[in-house]
Amino acid sequence: MNRIVRAYSEEDIKTVASLAKEIYTEHYVPITGPEQVEYMLDKFQSEKAVKEQIENGTVYNIIYRNETPCGYFAVDINKPKGKMFLSKLYIRKDARGLGLARTAFGIMKNMAEENGLSAIWLHVNKRNPSVEIYKAMGFEITEAVKDSIGGGFYMDDYIMEAGLD
Predict the structure, then answer these.
(1) Minimal CB count within 10 Å: which of 20, 108, 125, 160?
(2) Using an 8 Å Cβ cutoff, are 62 and 25 in contact?
(3) pTM of the model
(4) Pick from 146, 144, 124: nearest CA to 135
């Protein structure tokens, strides 16, 4: 049985940070290299960073398959006004292909509609195979960007968006 639980507690935050370390390392080292992965984990997905994001309004949810945490997603509502920013959607390798991302996206769409938003948007690395998954879920590439994230590292991304109509 799949379920999605909003992350609030210190234990939830530890679960997210642990999943991030496992998933980022496995998935992103071949794309960006180990140094950038380590930097991004520390800056964006450490327990401290996740806690600060939650305190600043980011909504984190843990995705469970049976009783095992298999992934998570994080969204910012009204960023920018009228849209939802999908900040993170990560699924463990052994749980990919089981429909968990599609289930999570359905929850996100409901959240966006409940808040009267018109679209969900995200950044995704141009070399990330997930680009095709997002396209299959109705996202379209709207822009290509290369932004500094500090530490001498860059995010070479597509911006993708899915309308809610």
Answers:
(1) 125
(2) no
(3) 0.93
(4) 124
Rounded Cα–Cα distance for residues 74 and 85 (Å): 9
What is the rounded distance in angstroms from the CA atom of residue 75 to the CA atom of residue 67? 23
The domain spans of the chain are 2-163
* Number of residues that make up the chain: 165
Structure tokens at 154: 């860059």
How confident is the model over 94-128, as pLDDT tens digits?
999 999 999 999 999 999 999 999 999 999 999 99
Partner residues linked to 7 by β-bridges: none
Note whether 162 and 118 are within 8 A (CB).
no
CATH placement of domain 2-163: 3.40.630.30
Question: What phi and psi values does residue 137 have, to the nearest 5 degrees?
Answer: -90, 10
